[in-house]
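Hey, sorry for the delay on this. The queue was backed up all week. Below are the sequences that define the complex (chains, strands and the ligand SMILES where applicable).
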Amino acid sequence: MPAALFATTLLIAACGLVYELVAGALASYLLGDSVTQFSTIIGAYLAAMGVGSWLSRFIGRGLVARFLAVELLVAVVGGFSSTVLFLAFAWTDAFRLALYAIVVVVGILVGLEIPLLMRILRERFEFKDVVASVLTFDYLGALLASLLFPLVLVPQLGLVRSALAFGLVNAAVALWGTWLFRAALGGTRALRVAGVAALALLAGGFVYGERITAAAERGLYADDVIFARTTPYQRIVLTVWKDDLRLFLNNHLQFSSRDEYRYHEALVHPGLAGLQGARRVLVLGGGDGLALREVLKYPGVAHVTLVDLDAGMTGLFRTHPRLVELNGGALSSPRVRVVNADAFSWLDTSQDRFDFVVVDFPDPSNYSVGKLYSTAFYRLLTRHLSRDARIVVQSTSPLFARASFWCVDRTLREAGLRTAPYHLYVPSFGEWGFVLASLGEPYAAPTQLPAGLRFLTASQLAPLFDFPLDMQPVPVLPNRLNDQVLVRYYEREWERINR
Amino acid sequence: MHPVAPAIAAGEGAVTMPQSRRAFLGAVAGASAALVGLSCKGGPRIAGTFADDGGAAGHLIRDGATLAKPRERRRVPLVIVGGGIAGLSAAWWCERQGMRDFVVLELEAEAGGNARAGRNDIGAFPWGAHYVPVPGKRATLARALFEDLGVLRDGTWDERSLCYAPQERLFWRGRWHEGFESFLLDAPAGRAEWSRFSERLAELRAGGGFTVPLSIGAPASSPLDSVTFSDWLEREGFRSPALRWYADYACRDDYGTRAVDTSAWAGLHYFAAREHEELGPLTWPSGNGWIVERLLERVGDRVRTGAAVRRVTLSGSRAVVRTATAEYRADAVIWAAPIFLAAHMVQGFPSTADVTYAPWLVANCVLDRWPEDHGAPAAWDNTIVGSPGLGYVVSTHQQVARAGDRSVWTYYRSIPGVTPAAARRYLLRTPWHDWADLVLDDLEQAHPDIRSCVSRLDLRRYGHAMARPVPGFLDARWRRTLQSSRGPVWYGHADLGGISIFEEAQDRGVSAARKALDRLAGAYGASGA
Ligand SMILES: Cc1cc2nc3c(=O)[nH]c(=O)nc-3n(C[C@H](O)[C@H](O)[C@H](O)COP(=O)(O)OP(=O)(O)OC[C@H]3O[C@@H](n4cnc5c(N)ncnc54)[C@H](O)[C@@H]3O)c2cc1C
């Protein structure tokens, strides 16, 4: 009997600590800043344990039954804690609330355990031995948990299933208790039924734990995730809802198949349609092959080089049936050469010259991407232009990020190029902008566009180059490698929008 | 494209333990804290070694007496001893003047000295000097070099050689902050004191004596050179801990000395010699190793590496330069190696140079992934307030390519000790793994999981990195004596300026070259060209 009792103490102590570790690890994983997360969670947890200990004084009769009931409750709440938190993070805005609510509830219940257990044992053993042994095994249990957690549980089971596994242990201890203390219990039936139910529930969760994290990801994207992969450079996620296929890179929407044709037609044709005799085209970024699809509509274009950093992207868009359907198999065209390299370094080493260049990089949201929008980059690019060549640059939104947009324009001009900025409306993005640039003659809109477009007509081009009052130029500085004003403009402007 | 959506990643199964949890486990496990804390320590093993020729100089001095007969004998108009910035600049200058008949003798396996660089599969990284502030209008020699290298064209500086944004950040109160200013201004009295300090600097700057290099206008002596920088700050009433930290940091960073040991003139030179520069410094992934490479493209075919000079003797108006295997009979010699060695090796060395040297340590850390990082984004130069080190430079920062997960950080630490000799013993006797631990402990303050990110850590020890500009250095007799040498040995090394910076090394090297060329022109002119 004593051995069994102390084993119980050890196990419940271990369970209690695991729930706390899970909450701390999950919070620092999802929210970042692990020092803050861990210390506030420990604080809340220990305080709640204090509350639990204090509350224990209000439990008078039926000590053993109450103790076992507490055990079962901890098993279920603690066991499902990480599952609930994952889901709360993905589906609700109340992650922190759920986090601290769970930490406090588990803390209170765990705080009740030891005082109750001591009082139960006091009736059976010498008090000084009870205190000594219970605390010894309590601390040893904590040690056990803190070793198992990083070395075995997290690497082997992950956070969701670690908590569930310890919930199972907790519930099993409670069931075992109904047998250990059967003499002190009035009836054991109700408790045993509850115990078995808790075990079944937790076991179910344990088996389906994998799917729960997948569901959480779906929650984040609202639609069904049909593809998700982390490459060395980014997390690629594809979602569908009815006929709408969407691409997210690092959770940023890249396109929606419902209106991407607007974006890509406007990116390519105003610049390329008027370039009689354009044979060699360069696409920088744009690993989705959509700009490429538009470029390939010109039979005169003999060679297209596409430079995209991420082989994961170009590979996916060359092979995934839905994506191949969308880009018309552009990445497999014999006219296309795909290079997976950093655009800046590639331009540094290449000698090639082009008649038309599409620059379609992610928005300049950090210093690393911002280098690709600098005077140094555009100067380098001009060394790869043929005589009458043009460049088109995706330049973020002239409405939401007005200074950023005009900064791209200013930077191109600083690099010695003549610019022609324009804009259009893309429903899934809002008002969006591009800048055409060239070393030669001023831009003149083409009078003819290739056949088979869905958005642009030749007569529609002129208005694109006209900016309404709220998108007109603002005074800005050019973006240089050593002083990336663009990244600062961009951060300021999108922060204002997101607030 | 790409409007910004709330950027949060949902969970994917298992999580690796953040290292900071070690502290947490200790706290929460109560009685078993120590046990638990220890059980998690360790982490992956980090490889590395000493990548230096530590102590080589000492050997040279000791073995100086025992020289075997030379296997090779050569006559050459000019021998340059030392292939650091000074020696290579001397060579560059001769080349420019059309005098190509010289040889540069360099002790180490590669030229560059304190400006050497290394390279691995991630890219290039400095082993020492890593930047040159954008030279001002008056620094004509430095500008001439940068024009030659294509870094300065028609008055504009090449954007790719200027330090990319963000340039510096400072770690204090648990997070990184962009730039230094916010730290100085944050202290209660900080703002007032900083603006008073700036005014004082403006006055000193206007005086015109704080020049780079010193030879274009620094005074031969100054009352500011008779007190230490700390005493000067105290006297002027600059007492805020933030400013004092900054001043001390500046001395350690530039001279390897504490503010309490540094001449106030030198301490102020750091601040007053340059205008506030919007452009930021010139730098390259390999640091000043880039300049070394460019200079070697021009004169490298006449550089002999692994050629330690052991002795320079005089023979009439000529000098005889000995390495272990060769003997060079030269009309002129430029001594561009550290001056303390000349005292042992050059016959008729004109004075006892009472110069002391600061020891330095440089660590290159290979990171397989970026560690935990809080606050302002990673900059080129990253400094931790209150650290015994000087922070680290991210070598991949100056690559134009988008950085992958891997990087090399170059960590700097000057070792100011009770005496330079004691500090040098400490530097050279501390085993590799202890140094590695000290470096990582320091970085851990700002990056709790750094140990699990670093896969390799190599160390380079500089026993005699640079001459210390202690009070009295400006009008030290030995400097004047050496500068007025009449040959056939001329002295040109950063030590001679008293302040170890690129421009000083270049200036001293070139000015020695000018004198040597004059002599040679005279000699050859006389023999009737
Ligand atoms: C860690 C560190 C960081 C620094 N960072 C900067 C910085 O960022 N910017 C800056 O401007 N300055 C910096 N400096 C200062 C640097 O010392 C100077 O900029 C400059 O590189 C000094 O050049 P030098 O040629 O005068 O001396 P050294 O570099 O000392 O060159 C002397 C050369 O002589 C060789 N030599 C020695 N003995 C012999 C012998 N007997 N025979 C043959 N050859 C011999 C040496 O191997 C060496 O190559 C730094 C210094 C150190 C130590």
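The two ends of chain A are 61 Å apart (CA to CA).

I'll add it to the shared folder too.

S.
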